Amino acid sequence: MIKIFATEKVKDIDKYTILNMPIAPIDLVEEAVTAFVNEFRNHYSKMHRIVVFAGQGNNGADALGIARQLLDESYKVIVYLFNPTGYLSPECAENKRRLLNIDQVEFTEIRDNFIPPYLSSRDVVIDGLFGSGLNRPLSGGFAGLVKYINSTPAEIVSIDIPSGLFGEDNRENDKDCIIRANKTFTFNFPKLSFLMPENEVYVGEWKVLNINMHPQAVADTPTNYYLVTEEDIACVFQPRKRFTHKGTYGHALLVAGSRGKLGAAQLSAGACLRSGVGMLTVHLPKCGELMMQTALPEAMVDLDAHTDFFTVAPDITPYTTLGVGPGLGQQIETAVALDELMSAVIKPVVLDADALNLIASNKDILNKIPTRSILTPHPKEFDRLAGASNSAYERLQKAREFAKEHRLCVVLKDAYTAICTSEGNVYYSVCGNPGMATAGSGDVLTGIILGLLAQGYEPETAAVAGVFLHGTAGDLAAAQWSERGMIAGDLIDSLGKAFKQVI
Ligand SMILES: NC(=O)C1=CN([C@@H]2O[C@H](COP(=O)(O)OP(=O)(O)OC[C@H]3O[C@@H](n4cnc5c(N)ncnc54)[C@H](O)[C@@H]3O)[C@@H](O)[C@H]2O)[C@H](O)CC1
Ligand SMILES: [K+]
User: Do 173 and 192 belong together in one domain?
Assistant: First the structure.
């Protein structure tokens, strides 16, 4: 897991590193500078003019160091240091001194009046005005400067964080006074705000650059937010032992499908079967029998009394666990049957799609869902459950609260899916791609998670691993069929390869 720290925590980790590594602050800055330049070089040639904007703190110190190293590599660089209060951090002052040691450096320090340079589309701006030390929205001269930079056609690369953006909560921020970077190279830890869709316009493409932090400080500093890596998932899976049989790997029940939406049941069932589950039974309305038995001979079918939709809660005793929702429809009889089903279950289940919509309009059911059950809403479904949000950040906080209050695991689906546990932790998966924004993709995820849960993985583990495998399958599918050309069924076809890649 990569920890996602609040920006004030990063400061503590810095301090601990400086004291205990030990390393001089200026050398830590130099490590950040070198990491940035190593990455920058891969993207921008010496054909570009580099225009560096530095602030008074250590983001500015980084910027001045980057200017020096780029000049050393004979890039064409011009530098503006904004110092309205006449105070520079010690590292910023030292990097200014080091920079001015270079002959004929084009350097301007601005105290009050500033005539902005003309910036063309061939220029690359390096934004080092503010980083993790931002403590209020930008205003005055800095706001004007940011607006000017944003108005030019120049490419913008931000150091650590786009200037003006907070690392976490930007609800009260002035959205016009934040750098709109094309790329952001951030140090050591992704910032939570980078994972929110509303901040994509500021952050652009982002990459984490590693600089040496004291491992003890990283291990000991608490956080509720984590980024999941392939290694985390690889160690989740147990080898399948030789003397095992289908009963060893669980019997999942999937309650899904209604007339016109039987495909959702089929996709979910197909994904479940490819997740390693021992057996799968699909509870379907009568109209789905032929389709399911033909399309997925591996699945067993349990028919509802109704021809077109779910009306009677099945006996759940034969099953290890169940998943409910894909393509279910929202008939009143279905709501009643769902209520009955939730009254009968005691072990964690997976709930998705119309099951969530029905719960949103019949809130009593919420209290009947077994604790640690997994809910997989997309943002609109979550809003129906918990009320509308004005930003993804607000929705995330609501999802955390919701998960804690109801003792559930909420998988908030988005470009970066957040898995919120009942303990208040959030696990992010950053694999996957926009090709997965296609009908049926969510049904596939439900099937994978159901299959893992039925095999006995802890609900939170099943959710995190399921999301990661789903994203990996999406990336493999995009590589084969392209983001545009891929469909949800391709995710199922790629699941085997995803397992091979991850484990
Ligand atoms: N481990 C690491 O991640 C490292 C990061 N480094 C870089 O250091 C910056 C953080 O530096 P810091 O000096 O703490 O803060 P800033 O440069 O972001 O801010 C400086 C200064 O600005 C004042 N301020 C805050 N908000 C405003 C505002 N709205 N208007 C005016 N002035 C404001 C505040 O008082 C601060 O003092 C980090 O981002 C990295 O780039 C290091 O290189 C080493 C390791
Ligand atoms: K910055």
Answer: yes
